[in-house]
């Protein structure tokens, strides 16, 4: 049996949201601008997808995802020198501001009466010890336009925006001293609707280094499932993990390797995040992919 | 056909989460303390419910709800003199801090270098013009313990906590000069799993004034559905609304009345929220309910 034609289905079942063309232009401009400076671009999809059960809907079939992994990965890719298109679901976690997800922000604020001038509202840095550093980095990233956030709500919006993103970053004209095909964008797709991988790899972004994520509850079938996904979709890597241990253990599976990444107790004590290791592994793999072409 | 026995099903299908007993004690203490001061108690459930599709699950059948209505209603009930038990879903909107849901909090923060002392992080009050007032009120409410937030994630947790809440607030011993049965708590249940209304009204909180919410996409069947819910579950009121107009129009339906509440364009310009009208209507109805018993 052949794969269903998602492109056809997309056109048939879901009208193109009105803002897709405008967003596509912004993404292409973003990608072009960074490519002209020799900067690599990664597309991260994050935050799960909502599937409407009725046409005008009050119930959804939802994927489990706060968007934590997508948001933190975006930060580490920026630290690694990438520009990031962050295609994320409405109200999912966001790079840099994700630190607020564990506190009620009002518990971290204080009223302060100044002798001169206006009364102020000040962040209590005992409640949020990293806020100064994080805000500073957020403002630098904003200033240098290294992060392009694109928001989606419904599945149809996500699919059209993903297609637009892939096309926008795939058609970058690279500077002459680089070989165009060898510097394709990195496509990191968390919480991907599985069938969408096929047109993404084959049609929308054939030169990209595409990574999908696989979250299982049963560790024993993890590797097998990851390998089968690579066989089926012919993309470059699967980051596989188990629900219970996903914050501290993943396997990065490629057609010819399976590398385990693990946080030790010591790592956890030092607030090291597994996403730092994942991103480090993936940027190396991306470099190798570029060198091989 | 008879209603399924939810109580039995609860025990059968879902183990009682470990923290329910501890939460129940806290709620009972909260209700007892406020009742002893003659303060009425309202229980608000907010933020939708997640229904696990598998036992260890990565996908959910979800209700559409950001929790905006529950969070703002909690604020208006506190202004009306009630103490509020806020049974809300993890990551749904929260009283007072709900104003942050429309901005990236980092966009509202500024680094500030002080001549003396530590560098500070300050809220930009041009981005959040109400922050000083809202934070002040939040701190007063916290100080006077008028708000008891209880969080849930899964459906089973929600059901057990709701039952515990109803029992905790129903068994309040009122001061002698009040008749116990006439000062039952107000039970405001947004996004209620429908079948749960039956044991709530009949068994868990028979003396409470119970309100359910009905969200429809079709306005023509709204009133009929609300009346049918009252007939079936025998509770006191249904707040009925239509998806598209829910921020500006509701009908409060009781067994012998249907009152339309509507925001005019002028109201909207003045940032009046429909929840202020709903809460005003419901507190009056609650008073009447108490007087009649």
UniProtKB/TrEMBL annotation, chains A, B:
Short name of one Pfam family: DFP
DNA/pantothenate metabolism flavoprotein C-terminal domain segment(s): 41-113, 173-262
Entry GO MF terms: catalytic activity
BP term (GO), one: coenzyme A biosynthetic process
InterPro entries tied to this protein: CoaB-like_sf (IPR035929), DNA/pantothenate-metab_flavo_C (IPR007085)
Family that this chain belongs to: Belongs to the PPC synthetase family.
Record's protein name: DNA/pantothenate metabolism flavoprotein C-terminal domain-containing protein
